[in-house]
Amino acid sequence: MLQLLHTLHILTLSKSLRHGASHLLQVLLRAHASGLRPTQTLFNIVLASCEHAGSWLTAIALLEEMRVSRMAGLISFNTCMAACAAAAQWRKALDLLAEVQSLYQPDCATMGSSMTALAKGQQWHRAWELLQGFFSQGLQPNQVVVNACISAAEAGYQWPWALELLFFSKKELRPDIITYNTAVSACEKSSEWQRAFLLLRELQDRCLQPDSTSYGAAVLAAVSARPMQWTAAFSLLEEMMGRRITPQLATFTQLLMECELRGLAERERSLLLALPEALEASVSAVTETSASATREDVSQLVLHVAAQKSLVSGDLDRCTEFLRRLDRAGLWNPLAEALWLRAKGNDSVKNRAEGRARAPPEGLRAGRAKELRLCRHVFASASMDAKSVCEAMEDFGHRLSQQGLWLKLAAGAKGDLLVSALSRAPAGPVLEIGSYCGYSAIRLALSGRGVVTLETDPIHAVIARNMVMMAGLDHRVDVRIGHSKDVLPRLGKFEGDQKFAFVFMDQKGSRFHEDLRLLADRDLLCDGAVVVADNVLKPGAPIFLYLLAQAATRGDSATEIVELQEFAMPAEDWMSVSTLHRPRGLLTLAPREAPAELWELHAASERIRTQAMGQGVTFKEWSLFNEDARLSS
Question: What is the pTM of this model?
Answer without folding.
Answer: 0.83
